[in-house]
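User: Can you write out an input/output pair for a complex, sequences first and structure second?

Assistant: Here is one pair. Inputs:
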Amino acid sequence: MSMDEAARIALLSRLFEADTPGVDVGIGDDAAVLAPDAVGARRIVWTIDEQVDAVHFRRDLVSWHDLGWRSLMAAASDVAAMGAVPWCALTAMVLPGDVDDAALGQIGQGQRDASRVLGAPVVGGNLSQGRVLSIATTVLGTCERPVRRRGAREGDGVWLAGSIGIARAGLEALLRASPMRAGLEPALAAWRTPRALIAEGRAMALCAHAAIDVSDGLACDVGHIAQASGVAIVLDEAALLADPALCDAADALGESALHLALFGGEDYALVMASAVEAPGFRRIGTVRAGSGIAVRGFSGERPIEPRGFDHFRADCFVTGKRPEASRS
Amino acid sequence: MSMDEAARIALLSRLFEADTPGVDVGIGDDAAVLAPDAVGARRIVWTIDEQVDAVHFRRDLVSWHDLGWRSLMAAASDVAAMGAVPWCALTAMVLPGDVDDAALGQIGQGQRDASRVLGAPVVGGNLSQGRVLSIATTVLGTCERPVRRRGAREGDGVWLAGSIGIARAGLEALLRASPMRAGLEPALAAWRTPRALIAEGRAMALCAHAAIDVSDGLACDVGHIAQASGVAIVLDEAALLADPALCDAADALGESALHLALFGGEDYALVMASAVEAPGFRRIGTVRAGSGIAVRGFSGERPIEPRGFDHFRADCFVTGKRPEASRS
């Protein structure tokens, strides 16, 4: 049996209760109230992300806790991609009747655990019933100097923080539901409990000309930088494959590691264009004059489509179909 | 045929494009960027609301334009209820395959029209596919002094801005789908195109001890003030019925006007507890020592349940069932 809405809000209030400086009013009023002290002369960065059952996750593939965790991390990653620090979050959940109070409590714990790692408390939200489970998460952040997608310059290096392709390998392993082979544990964890790269984002803000987080897939997301900046980007195949965990996972699945690295999504890595290195980043390519993206490999250079997962072309990511959409 | 996600985002960007002071980066990057100038020493007020198909609306009862309009107004009303002025908004939409680009354009136009009336531009959002249409809207506002649900004092008047019960009458009329009778036009408009009472909220912020917006129903929402403030509230039946439009609509439907006024939701009126009047408000009751709420009518005083629409008790608002949930 389900508690009524007030009891469910009280449950989440207890979970999210936090002594956070700058939060005057948290859960339980018409709106959260934030003191302006945390902002000062800094810029406010603001994003919303949504995770929908059978589109971004499938309930049999992820625990309630991890569902809450990844919903918050996915939204916070957009804040990291601007070089900003998360400040606080709101969560709007649509809950079918079969998501009981224990499940809601676990989703809330996942959100709380993620919010603690991020240093950004959940200060409010909304609960609705509905036939399809979804979690919309909005995050506020602050920064001195936001890093946009536009701004990459000819001659810049292209730099990566975090892993790419691994989360997709983890999802692929879950979809096949075959007895798990060695080498796939890091991939499963990457898909189930990703981390927004906040520290890396802050480091990058000091030098990056342009940046994005890798949510749809490297080819797609780097394509956004190239298009917004009016440049071409050439990725280095050897650099993309210099990740033992990715190669192990690809081997275990019998998949191409390069394909996973280029087109797999949901890793929440950060990519920046910068003339100089930043802590936590490794070089994976170069910005050139022109347009489009290419991979420079062992057998020369070839253009690639800046594609990845597109909600409006792929019927459903987690059916296991390879996304075929172009997005530019 | 549907455009791909990038084209849809471009469509919305063109709609929402606005020369808004204080918005450094709008749609099209990882996050919106806001300059802190609009905040200064003011408080930031922040809310999220979600409208879900077959729960908060039904696609055959509302135009695409009005769906966009009411999704933004419902969220902005929470900002008004704190005595704050809306600043800007983000919208996260889940769109089934049969919501085509023309429909999306009309939803966006409804959002834009509402945002212009509110003076709060849509500066970003998120698009997902999914089986059930939903729109989550988050709004930032600013104010000198937020008005909370707690703070009502014994002896305060209870004051109302806007109409109550009318929106529910409009929905009831739509659900019956019978040939429309005279007197119901204002009710239909109230449900389809509500207005967040921003000016009234600002006026109230100068004097209110406590406030809320009437989204779930007067009895339920006034119950929140009573509970949060640790007081009793007595509503005046004659004052609740002093609205010709409500009485006309109730007559046309053969419903009790008092029942509509007490338990109908989605009017987005404002209620405050205050020792003094504010422009746009009329008195509908009194704050007393004690707890709970009551109606003082022609035949004496009787307690009423602080109930209204509760997503987790009522199966579906728009099935026409009268909400039976208690919420306290």
